[in-house]
């Protein structure tokens, strides 16, 4: 989709002033996602963000892609302790052994859910009845960091065995994957993402 001239549009305040942030905002953030590979990618990235700035992770996105086998859960699930040591020594991603081990564990959980449900997307989108939440915030200060749904998602994934995925991370994940549309209504992407969300998301 061709984007409007930068001088003619309004964006969410959080992405302004940084080209990488803006590109991510304009092309990905808030678009309803039913692609299991990308859903897994963002489980790794959002979990890695815990306690950190999202830009810190976004700058290392390609390094994470290389370190975590192009975000293929069946490969990450088989990572050994030696592979964890290699990732840490390479120093290209956040060197937090707990988060790296969590990514391996979460890959195993992801595959278990995928096998049981047919796809991880079916499991995830059923939580919101296969329909993105059409939020309409005008003030960025009003956008929550957790909701009842993010708490429910976090608890559900924790019960499945996932780690480093608390309610705040769960809500950031929901925003990124388009389960909620948290673009401000003044942002040019608000209506575009709302239109993406009109299609049926059942049993992709």
UniProtKB/TrEMBL annotation:
PANTHER family registered for this protein in UniProt: DNA-3-METHYLADENINE GLYCOSYLASE 1, DNA-3-METHYLADENINE GLYCOSYLASE I
Cell wall biogenesis/degradation recorded as keyword: no
Keywords, alphabetical: Metal-binding, Zinc
The protein's name in its UniProt record: Probable DNA-3-methyladenine glycosylase I
List of residues binding Zn(2+): 12, 25, 183, 187
Key word Zinc present: yes
GO biological process terms on file: base-excision repair
Gene Ontology MF terms: DNA-3-methyladenine glycosylase activity; metal ion binding
Natural source organism: Desulfotalea psychrophila (strain LSv54 / DSM 12343)
A Pfam short name: Adenine_glyco
InterPro entries referenced in this protein's UniProt entry, alphabetically: Adenine_glyco, DNA-3mA_glycosylase, DNA_glycosylase
Lineage: Bacteria, Pseudomonadati, Thermodesulfobacteriota, Desulfobulbia, Desulfobulbales
